[in-house]
Design goal:
Radius of gyration: 29 Å
Helix content: 40-55%
Structural class: alpha+beta
Number of domains: 3
Strand content: 5-15%
Number of helices: 19
CATH class of the largest domain: Mainly Alpha
CATH topology of the largest domain: Arc Repressor Mutant, subunit A
Length: about 550
């Protein structure tokens, strides 16, 4: 469900200015038919993912000769890759990133898959730099993005889960480090301490939050680390990448200050389902009556200088505080019908206050630390994690994909026939390499790769489905493998440490019945086969790695 945006026009030649806001798939198909009326193109409007497997089902994939994809997220690429491996279809995976681009060829029974290897993780800004010691506008923009998620998305999601999921508390308390405390404090703030009932309440919250972030927190930081603070070696603490900040004073006549309050108040109201306002004069009048507590330095506040310090602190959890929070939270039964509305960041809608908040929040923090501010355009690029797309890069990558497509159509089955491509037009750099062969594994003198699997027919000759007991015996008899654990997705169907009563109950149940019971989901009518993962021991009792099972049920 991808729509055409104005920014697409400079590099996607099938689209024209009058196509903006139309669906990409339909528009591209129509444009291709104009170029060649004899070509057969079918456009789809449904996204590809686990929730549309009833649409993109066995029939859909089995009728394909191959897949060419240029998706915009790693998760989406890995999903399509898994489907191509399951259906044993060639995949031409490609992407661009500014002047950089790549093409990867995935051929059944010949190459590794897209998911077989991963790029090294991107460099991340240290948390302590973001929280306390920014020195570049990129730091303040990332801080503003985190602030957006932490104010208008995550708390609302957690509140809704708390209200409808009886196991929310149990699950939250199992989280690592200080996460349980952070989640429960956010839920308490949202339901008790800061819950607004009117637009005026939202303006009051926004003003007080402004003072907390740009005045009180900075004063607390300077209380812990005064401007003349020295390190243990006698060097100034505020030196090098550490910029000494200064608190801001709220000025109702400062347009940036009012921008922040307008955006924050409207987003806060939206997250509670309240009506906001664009009346700046009206907000200015409301602000005159807002009382903000005087700042008083807090003792015992630990501000971490490095991520190592932060990780050490997260190892200890205040159990007493957790129990206090549990007791202070209102019971879900006392809030019938109440829910919050999580806000997903959308950079391209200038009327939704999202970028207004990001720009104001970032530039105010930049002012705290004497960092040059960023205009709206740069803020959108950084906050939206946008690398401008270049038509030349797209054209080069499409050409390289087509070269590999011809080889797939011709049916080449030698590894050296195919080439993965890596380019960077800025250098310029062009590199071509043979795809890596699919890694080989072995069990009991049997060699296999990711393209292999066990094929098990669930429906037996007598018309009845295989039970768990029969499934276990089948692998012991036919493959000399003792199954120690068996799962389908995230559902554990069998394990050697399973309680005897549960094992006795499941052994004589049909496999699909066990899957439905454990996953608490009825299998869809489109499901013809299940993917089962196994841990096994060989005849010598050694743990061995084995392929997955394609368990056919019809």
């Amino acid at each position: 469900m991808d729509i055409i945006e104005k920014s697409n026009l400079n590099r996607q030649f099938l689209f024209r200015p009058w196509d903006v806001t139309k669906l990409k798939s339909d528009t591209a198909a129509a444009a291709v038919r104009q170029l060649n009326p004899h070509i057969r193109v079918m456009s789809r409007q449904d996204r590809v993912g686990p929730d549309t497997e009833h649409i993109y089902d066995d029939d859909f994939f089995q009728n394909l000769d191959g897949v060419a994809s240029a998706l915009d997220s790693v998760d989406a690429r890995m999903y399509v890759d898994r489907r191509c491996v399951f259906y044993r279809k060639p995949l031409l995976e490609s992407g661009t990133w500014g002047t950089k681009g790549n093409v990867q060829v995935v051929i059944p029974f010949l190459t590794e898959s897209y998911s077989s290897s991963q790029d090294p993780p991107e460099k991340r800004i240290p948390i302590c730099t973001l929280k306390n010691f920014p020195n570049a506008v990129e730091h303040t923009l990332q801080w503003a993005r985190d602030e957006f998620e932490g104010l208008f998305k995550h708390p609302a999601e957690n509140v809704n889960q708390y209200l409808i999921d009886s196991k929310f508390m149990e699950r939250t308390l199992r989280l690592a480090g200080t996460q349980p405390l952070e989640v429960l404090e956010a839920v308490q703030r949202s339901l008790v301490l800061q819950r607004p009932h009117t637009w005026a309440d939202c303006v009051t919250w926004a003003c007080r939050h402004w003072h907390t972030q740009y005045s009180s927190n900075i004063q607390q930081l300077l209380h812990n680390f005064p401007p003349d603070q020295l390190t243990s070696s006698g060097a100034p603490f505020w030196s090098g990448p550490k910029r000494c900040p200064h608190p801001l004073t709220f000025d109702i006549n400062n347009s940036l200050h009012l921008d922040y309050v307008m955006a924050a108040a409207n987003l806060f109201a939206q997250s509670y389902g309240l009506l906001g306002s664009r009346d700046r004069a009206g907000v200015a009048i409301l602000l005159q009556s807002v009382k903000v507590p005087e700042f008083t330095p807090k003792s015992g506040i630990k501000i971490h200088v490095s991520d190592q310090e932060l990780q050490s602190a997260e190892a200890s959890v205040d159990d007493t505080r957790l129990q206090e929070l549990k007791a202070m939270l209102p019971s879900p039964e006392t809030l019938p019908g109440f829910k919050m509305y999580p806000i997903n960041f959308e950079k391209d809608d200038d009327s939704n206050f999202h970028m207004d908040f990001i720009v104001a929040a970032s530039n105010l923090r930049a002012e705290n630390y004497n960092i040059p501010p960023a205009d709206r355009h740069k803020s959108k690029l950084v906050a939206g994690r946008i690398i401008p797309a270049i038509a030349t890069t797209s054209a080069a990558i499409v050409g390289l994909v087509c070269l590999e497509l011809y080889k797939v159509v011709q049916g080449h089955q030698q590894l050296e026939s195919y080439k993965n491509s890596f380019i960077n037009l800025a250098l310029p750099f062009f590199s071509f390499s043979e795809p890596l062969a699919a890694p080989r594994h072995q069990y009991s003198n049997q060699e296999w790769t990711l393209w292999d699997r066990f094929e098990v027919q669930g429906l037996q000759s007598n018309g009845e489905e295989m039970t768990l007991r029969q499934f276990l015996n089948y692998f012991k008899r036919e493959h000399k493998l003792e199954i120690t654990m068996l799962s389908q997705g995230v559902s554990l169907l069998y394990s050697f440490f399973m309680p005897a009563s549960r094992l006795k109950e499941r052994l004589d149940q049909p496999m699909t019945e066990i899957v439905s019971r454990v996953s608490k989901r009825k299998l869809g009518q489109h499901v013809r086969a299940l993917v089962l993962e196994m841990c096994c021991n060989n005849e010598s009792g050694e743990d061995v790695e084995v392929p997955y099972v394609r368990y056919t049920i019809c």
